[in-house]
Each structure stands twice: as structure tokens, then as C-alpha cells.
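worker-3 :: picked Nucleotidyl transferase
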Amino acid sequence: MKALLLAGGLGTRLRPLTDDLPKPMVPIMGRPLLESIILNLKKSGIDEVVISTYYKSQYIEDYFRQKEDLGVKIHYITEESPLGTGGAIKNAEKFFDDTFLILNSDIVSDVNYADLIKYHKRKRAQVTIASIEVRDTSQYGVIEFDEKGFITAFKEKPKSGESNSKYINAGVYVFEPDVLKEIPENTVVSVERETYPTLLEKGYRMAIYKFNGYWIDIGTIDKYKKVHEDILRGKSRFISTNFSRGIILGDNVKIHPTARVIGPAYIGNNTEIDAYATVGPYTVIGNNCRIGQESKVSKSILWNNVKVRRFARLDNAVVTSECIVEVNMEIKNTVFTANRLASSTMTT
Ligand code: GDD
Ligand code: MG
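worker-3 :: C-alpha cells ->
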């Protein structure tokens, strides 16, 4: 079976992390989210994917072209101007002549794809939407359904009081290809705001697949931080290694005997931690980083090739690739990109 990965969004709410790379490529535990999604699909027997791109499309192609050992066939389809989620699905029509999966590419979840597909077939549905129950539905698509598990209404980001349902669209769908004829060609279409309501109006069989496991949309800085904390606490199976409480070291990590690493923490390949430095807890450090003498890094996420100079202090920070944190510098509750401090301040 094939999967379509919707990866063309602007990632505005995740700025400045998305200044140089598209949202699906932000690292989660040191690896681009999209790569982990593809690896998880592969485990469920999906070995061919179509990535639908727009914003910074070349970044995605360049990355995966040098990852040919992934064992998954990847096709790319790029929009000249954003077509919206529905338009992007229609645009990829030529790749699909059988039941297929569609995924938002900014989700970390433990949804069981094989079970979802089995459910879709058993229901003889034309579209099945994976769904989880949440308290605050305002940021999501809300699903109303009958006692047999068929969807009766889909309301994208409803205003308060517009729906009593607490079941939201988890951004994972199974589609029968004949549904695509209902989406107009070469037009900006939202699958959530336009296609789903149209399909329901026309009487298509749309099923809801409820699941309970871990699920998060990583689309804001706070959630980007939360997903790391959750994985480090062992709350999700999205990344196959169990990080709970432990310290996970990549290849060729050098830790000076006087340095301290406090778990849970992840240290990427070829990273060096110098004398009397303290790293952790709840800290993720990427590949080829250098943590300088007597510096302190806690509750932070560092991307690749970051240099933290002597006596620097990082707490509750995100530092993007190639940054240099100068001697004595203190970075707290913020995102540090290149050598400038970003304006966004985190609340957690
Ligand atoms: N190719 C392409 N073109 N992809 C797009 C476009 C586009 O014009 N617009 C958005 N996407 C991709 C994004 O990259 C992302 O992976 C996915 O579609 C969803 O877009 P978001 O911008 O992240 O939407 P959202 O988070 O506000 O809402 C969506 O996700 C929720 C779950 O997290 C909706 O599907 C909601 O119904 C859902 O509950
Ligand atoms: Mg999203």
C-alpha cells in the first residue's frame, strides 16, 4: 500500500524553527520528523510514499535523495503555489489506484496503521479518519459520528458551542481512490473545510477510527518541546528506543570524566562534552555538537553542529543547527537561531 504525506504547509506557528527548513523536517530526538514517520510506515508494510511539498520543497528532496538506504520508494510532487490539503491530495491522484493512506506530516503518534487499514476494510468505508478524544477541540477538526462509527459531520476548528463532540481529526486518513473525483482540479481546496463536508452531503461512507495512544501535533514551539519531554519520559512508542529516564548515547560520543550527564537525555553522534560541563535532565543534543567546559545545559534541545562555549548556561531552550553560544552567554526559555535571539519566548 502507498501513503501520501502532506508536507507543504508554511509552518508559521513554528517559526523561527521553520525559517530555514519545512516543518516536517524539524528534528525530533535528533532525526527529521518526516523520516521517523516514513520509518514507522515501513514497519507497517508501507514501502512506497508520495511526499506532497510546497514550502522549502528542495530541502525535503535533497535530504531524502541521500537516504536511499531507507528501503522505501519515495516520489515527490511539488506545488507552484499552495493548493491546500484537498488540492494537494487531488494533485497526487495519478499515484493512487488502490486504497491508500494520507498523513499530515507534523504529527507524532502511536496510531497503528495496519489496524486502521483493517478497520477501514471491515467498515467498507470510502474514507476512514483516525481520531482521538481531547478536552479542547478548538485547534482541530471535530468529528461527529453515529453509534455504528460512521461520520455524520466534520467541523474544522469550530467556535465554542458549535459541536459537543470531543473527537478530533488526528490527521491520518485511509482513502479509496474513487473519492478523489469529488475534489476539483488545479484549485485551492481544504480537505477539512470543503471535501469532507461535501462527501458527507453526497452520502459517502466515512468511518471514524478511534484510538487511545500517544498523539501530538508538533506545530507550535511549546508542543515541539513537549513532545521531546514526553518521549524522554517514555510516553510514546513513536521512536523505537525507550528513552525513559535513561541516557542514550550516539556513536563516538566523548564525555570528559569530570562532566555530568543527567538522564533522561539523548546525545547524538560525534558530540563532545568537555570538563565539568553538566548536561540534562530532559535534554536532547544533536550530532557533532560541542558542549564547552563548565557550561550547563538543561531542559533544552540542541540541533546539529551546535557549539556551546565555556561557562554558557542553557535552560528550557531550543538551539538550531550551526549556532554558536558564546562564552558566559545565558539562554533561557527561548529559541536561539544562528547568532541572534529570536523574539518568541516560550511559556513552559
Ligand atoms: N502539499 C501541501 N499543500 N500540504 C499542505 C498545504 C498545502 O497547501 N497546507 C497544509 N499542508 C500540510 C501541512 O504541511 C501539514 O502536514 C498538514 O497539511 C496539515 O496542515 P496544518 O497547517 O498543520 O493544519 P492544522 O494543524 O492547523 O490542522 C490539521 O491538523 C489537525 C491535526 O493536527 C487539520 O487536518 C485538522 O483537522 C486536524 O485536527
Ligand atoms: Mg498541524
